[in-house]
């Protein structure tokens, strides 16, 4: 019995060995050639895809099936040494470019000091923090692109717009007068001689002209010539005397207003002449004849005075500082011949007032000195959307405070107001001071 069982075990072992040898021969002859054939076909497909241009590759990336196959191929390329290195690199570059495009970008948070300023802006402006993406540098490289404000064009336009006024001023005629200063009595003598080629204001084709004379900034003392009936070339030949100290002559201005007299209605203004520097026209030691063109005007221009202030902007901090220095020759608003002036500064955006700040009140003076700083927090990206309205007010204990005069500075302001603003932006962190004439509201 022992020999029979041992023989059975030997037969079973020999049978298993024969089966193993048969399976090894079958794998060697059939499975290995078929596997090599599949790998070589996959290599051919990958090489053909790597040789395609970028546009075909982008189209394949859009397809979800192609993306899954491509990612599977890349995984194989990392583990299989049979795929060429250039094919692996090309496939990796495509995947890296795709992930770079899909990467999200975030904007930097704006300064907390400017949150209150942006809250007051109109909603349609969509104020946001500065974008540091790829598009803004392209805009910055084109400073003359369509849509960008060009101050020089507006300046040229304002110069051109003055031409019609100059043409109209030539048709208002001329006036002849003389100046002489008496040093002993400290008196300035103004002699109105004649006028020529005045415009006709009556239906009959003539005028009834007369002249008012002021020595600004004093408007309380005024003189007036006689009315000459029905003439466009009147001869006045009248003298008027203004007591004035010699040291004040440099700051005084001669103002001549020509009117047409009307018995039953308001007198019509023909024009005016303003001589700012008396010493340029004459040495005043002897009587000198002066001819001036009569400038066209419909109302008397009132000298409201001037204000001096400085502007300074810090781009990094987004801080605008306006320093009110002083005023001079303000208009008298009280019966005492003086005023109680203070300065109010308003921050405007598209005609809407966002903030306002005031200086202290100076009592009983027409030449106040302040030296007070007013600060506004404005982001750099909003500087071309805002402007400042500077108002000189007269304080009244009873009733409403009265406006003496105003001036405006900003990109959209006119004349000196625009030039002062542009000079401040051109020289950041540097205070720029100028005198500004006050005008009526």
Automatic annotation (TrEMBL):
Protein name: Synaptotagmin-6
Membrane topology: Single-pass membrane protein
Start and end residues of each C2 domain: 171-292, 303-436
UniProt cross-references to InterPro entries, sorted A to Z: C2_dom, C2_domain_sf, Synaptotagmin
Key word Transferase present: no
PANTHER family tied to this protein: SYNAPTOTAGMIN, SYNAPTOTAGMIN-6
Keyword Metal-binding: yes
Location in the cell: Cytoplasmic vesicle, Secretory vesicle membrane
Main location: membrane
Organism: Cathartes aura (Turkey vulture)
Residues spanning the membrane: 6-27
Taxonomic lineage from the root: Eukaryota, Metazoa, Chordata, Craniata, Vertebrata
């Amino acid at each position: 019995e022992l020999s029979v069982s041992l023989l059975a075990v030997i037969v079973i072992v020999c049978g298993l060995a024969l089966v193993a040898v048969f399976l090894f021969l079958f794998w060697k002859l059939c499975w290995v050639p078929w596997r090599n054939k599949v790998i070589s076909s996959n290599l051919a497909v990958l090489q053909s895809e790597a040789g395609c241009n970028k546009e075909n590759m982008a189209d394949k990336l859009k397809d979800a099936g192609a993306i899954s196959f491509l990612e599977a191929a890349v995984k194989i390329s990392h583990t299989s040494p049979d795929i060429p290195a250039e094919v692996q690199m090309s496939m990796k570059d495509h995947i890296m470019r795709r992930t770079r495009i899909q990467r999200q970008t975030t904007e930097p948070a704006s300064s907390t000091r400017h949150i209150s300023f942006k809250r007051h802006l109109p909603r349609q402006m969509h104020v946001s923090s500065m974008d540091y993406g790829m598009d803004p540098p392209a805009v910055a490289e084109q400073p003359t692109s369509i849509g960008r404000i060009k101050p020089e064009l507006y300046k040229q336009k304002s110069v051109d717009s003055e031409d019609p006024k100059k043409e109209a001023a030539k048709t208002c005629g001329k006036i002849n007068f003389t100046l002489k200063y008496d040093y002993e009595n400290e008196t300035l003598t103004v002699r109105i001689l004649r006028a020529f080629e005045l415009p006709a204001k009556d239906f009959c084709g003539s005028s009834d002209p007369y002249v008012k004379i002021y020595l600004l900034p004093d408007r309380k003392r005024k003189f007036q010539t006689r009315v000459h009936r029905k003439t466009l070339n009147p001869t006045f030949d009248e003298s008027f005397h203004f007591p004035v100290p010699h040291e004040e002559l440099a700051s005084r201005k001669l103002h001549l207003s020509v009117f047409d007299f009307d018995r039953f209605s308001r007198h019509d203004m023909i024009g005016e002449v303003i001589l700012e520097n008396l010493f340029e026209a004459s040495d005043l030691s002897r009587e000198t004849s002066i001819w001036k063109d009569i400038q066209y005007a419909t109302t008397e221009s009132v000298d409201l005075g001037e204000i001096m202030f400085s502007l300074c902007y810090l781009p990094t901090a987004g801080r605008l500082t306006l320093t009110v220095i002083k005023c001079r020759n303000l208009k008298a608003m009280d019966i005492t011949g003086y005023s109680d002036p203070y300065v109010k500064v308003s921050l405007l955006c598209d005609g809407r007032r966002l903030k306002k700040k005031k200086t202290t009140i100076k009592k009983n003076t027409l030449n106040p000195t302040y030296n007070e700083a007013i600060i506004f927090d404005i982001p750099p990206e909003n500087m071309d959307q805002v402007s400042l309205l500077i108002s000189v007010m007269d304080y009244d204990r009873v009733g409403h405070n009265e406006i003496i005069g105003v001036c405006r500075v900003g990109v959209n302001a006119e004349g000196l107001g625009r030039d002062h603003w542009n000079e401040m932006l051109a020289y950041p962190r540097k205070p720029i001071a100028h005198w500004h004439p006050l005008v009526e509201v």
